[in-house]
Amino acid sequence: MQRDEYAGPLALRAMQSLAVRAxxxxxxxxxxxxxxxxxxxxxxxxxxxxxxxxxxxxxVAWGWLELPDGLMLQVDPERPExxxxxLDWAEATAGTAGSGPLSVEVADTERAVIExxxxxxxxxxxxxxxxxxATGPYMTCLGRPLTGGLQGSPPSAMPGCVRPGRTVPSxxxxxxxxxxxxxxxxRAGTTR
Length: 192
Known about the structure:
Distance between the termini: 35 Å
Number of helices: 4
Strand content: 15-25%
Radius of gyration: 16 Å
Structural class: alpha+beta
Helix content: 25-40%
Number of strands: 6
Mean pLDDT: 72
Shape: globular
């Protein structure tokens, strides 16, 4: 097993190769999503450290931080034990960048990731109706909701992108909420 670290998503092709293999099982982290995020990170490489775990030249896990507090990750469904390694790297790397909670985007289909987060006492972010998990439009960084006219889209194909402290615009759509959630945790010395 080998871990390579980068300033920015320089190993995009390796990350995409895992995304292509994992997407049918998880419905999350499509190769095109990574290309889109890569474009957004071009001028911010120092704020987007990445690490890729490979075994025999094949990418089996990756983590991508959006400093100071955001994490995207993907682990080969056949190698769930690597979730711990990715989280160890991310927590250590983000720990040098700030003291706030780390927010992890995860789809409901990523059971191994959810279980590892829960073991580390991460909590599902609330804020939805009746204290339900927070959900929102796929692109919360835009100034307007994009959920209108999307009825009938499968929830697992529309992961959330909710980050602590951001206001998610209300939607008038009756479509189901996305299936992904943010999982922040409190670091030592902080409360949530």
